[in-house]
Predict the 3D structure of the following.
Amino acid sequence: MSTEIRALSPKAIWNKFADLNAVPRPSKKEERIIEFMVDFGKNLQLETFVDSVGNVIIRKNATTGMEDRKCVTLQSHLDMVHQKNNDLDFDFEKQGIEMYVDEDWVRAKGTTLGADNGMGVAAIMALLEATDIPHPPLEALFTIDEETGMTGAMGLEAGVLKGEILLNLDTEEDDEIDIGCAGGIDVTATRSYHINPVPIDVKAFVVTVKGLTGGHSGMDINKGLGNANKIMNRLLYHASLEYSVRIAMIDGGSLRNAIPRESKALIVVPLKQIMNFENYFFQLATTIKDELSILEPNLNISLVSNALPENVMDIKSQDKLLKCVYAAHNGVYAMSAAIPDLVETSNNIARVIVKGGEIKVGCLTRSSVNTAKMDLAEVLKSTFELGGFEVNFDGDYPGWNPNPNSVILQVLKAKYETIFNEKPNVVACHAGLECGILGKNYPEMDMISFGPTIRGAHSPDERVQISSVQKFWKFLLAILADSPKA
């Protein structure tokens, strides 16, 4: 529990992380965490304010002898992804995260941990509170709503920040220094369908896909993990080709930036087809599980009898839905020609909902090349429009173009080699960092991103490595102690 976490080293970070995880902080509902951060800054008697969109800014003067250094802006986001195991009773809006130590890792009990980006927030809080750590003038920027739209970074106005260097603490490999990231856009396809009466002489089933690994739809998209929405669609598509399956409801996936772990559908099948249908279904389920057995050993596909629904969707709309989702691209679309092993462009079919006469399919399309991002978005739009869907683009945000000549990059590379006796990996990532957005209003700010090792972000398997947090803290303190002069 929190007592166990607070005993970890460095205590300065882990105590702040425990404090942070006691406060509910879902995206778009950050009122409590904003109040918490404002109280934190004011209690330290530091300049603290909230900007027009809800970002919290806290400033701290340089320690004695470091007044001539450039002001450093330390940036992390306050919100966290809310994912939980389906069988867990947990209210993210009322409960704090329950944590525990598992060897060299800190995990949460059946939910996301919030290490993304709570570890960055906790590190900044520890620096603001410390009285014995040498540092230049500091400016803490705690943004809101990073996970579901980056509206905090987008809403930050020019002229608010004073820093000349920005350290974004939202990278998830402790041997990496990030100098670029992908941009993204939400692609949402919607259409209505006719509600038909349930056919006579049928039996209802609930189809469930669960047990998938899930994960970050950017950082983990190249791993070939199962997507619950695509698996469910494959099951229903092939079953409906062979048998008179009718769909009453589908509810698959959750957040746009999380690879879907679970999907549930309610269907009906004619009584005279039941035996053959069940045999066919379980054979197909076994095939899918065999295909994914190495990457998804816990995949579970079930078919359970259920009470009859009130209605089903019309057969034409059902056919269009299944074909469109089958055709829609999911996963890696293109690899970068400029940076080895970097995913350039991808799509995550994040959400599929069929209910009450309305269909909604939500995707997050990412790319480090803006034109390629929009090209894939148009591919998806064309796919769904062929099925009679209306397609909208929303939440468009830019990528972050790498600057290999960055002054702060040279500082970090040299410091990393000196401390750890090896070279860091200087990379761009396929996740969406806020640096690209912030750079639009602060083009002269020198930006870099790094952080401790986090695994399974955006899933209940999220965990942060304890030894890596120690390494990250040591690195961060060394950077600040030797920061560039103004």
Summary: The CA atoms of residues 176 and 425 lie 5 Å apart.
